[in-house]
Write a structure and sequence with these properties.
By secondary structure, the protein is an all-alpha fold. It contains 13 helices and no strands. The radius of gyration is 20 Å and the shape is globular. It comes from Phaeobacter gallaeciensis.
């Protein structure tokens, strides 16, 4: 169905984002359960999700809080996990940067893995979309996922430890990231960054307070940036040699 108005763009975003409920639902349910097990009451768990709205950062912070890690380490680790969102924002700026400030502020809150992955593909596929249509589509991708995440968190916190371990909800987290990260590895720099981060994370897991995650993330970003610089220099030299 062709996008002709912001309204049609919004509903296309809703349809495209709907399958992610299969991931965000169990994911939010698991967070609610773990939050309850960690001693958070239902309003606290729901406020956590409303304030942060970033599953991986929430799980990281919750785990470190249970380990009685210093508050500074909790904050740094949660921020490190969410550094990718800064890159998402930079990537979306050419498409959404001219939207009104209040819309961009709300979009910043709703910038998560699925909204970015769906939106960047949509915007690259249909470059003729207007800014209002792009923004409508972006918000549509969260039309079901965001409330679904909050409802799942509330439900998980309500039922708490009653969820049996046999359900295997903790396996949703790696599955979700594998499903979203795989299609994003589109350039050599992305691949290098991914594998360097993985290779670093394994030995760095021995570091306390989840600091290995920060070290691995920094190593991956530096490796990816260096790879991109090297490839650009190589391309430029090749063009210069061809011109001669």
């Amino acid at each position: 169905m062709a996008i002709t108005t912001p309204k049609s763009a919004f509903w296309k975003g809703v349809r495209d984002g709907a399958p992610f409920l299969l991931v965000s639902g169990p994911f939010g349910l698991l967070f609610g359960v773990l939050a309850a097990e960690a001693g958070l009451i239902v309003p606290e768990a729901l406020t956590f999700s409303l304030a942060v709205f970033a599953g991986s950062a929430q799980f990281t912070a919750l785990q470190l809080m249970q380990e009685n890690a210093p508050i500074l380490i909790v904050l740094i680790s949660a921020l490190a996990v969410n550094l990718r969102v800064a890159m998402y924002s930079a990537s979306l700026t050419p498409y959404l940067g001219s939207a009104p400030l209040w819309q961009r502020a709300i979009a910043a809150y709703f910038t998560v893995d699925q909204s970015y992955a769906l939106s960047i593909v949509q915007f690259e596929t249909e470059p003729e979309m207007t800014v209002p249509e792009r923004m409508a589509y972006f918000f549509g991708t969260n039309g079901l996922v965001a409330p679904g995440w909050m409802i799942a968190t509330f439900t998980g916190a309500m039922i708490g430890a009653q969820v049996p371990n046999s359900w295997g909800l903790d396996f949703v987290l790696p599955l979700a990231f594998l499903a979203m990260i795989g299609p994003m590895l589109r350039t050599p720099a992305h691949v290098v960054a991914c594998f360097v981060a993985v290779a670093t994370a394994l030995p760095a897991a021995a570091l306390p307070y989840n600091l290995g995650l920060i070290v691995a993330g920094l190593a991956g970003m530096m490796a990816g940036a260096q790879t991109e610089v090297w490839l650009e220099n190589r391309l430029r030299r090749s063009q210069e040699e061809t011109a001669q």
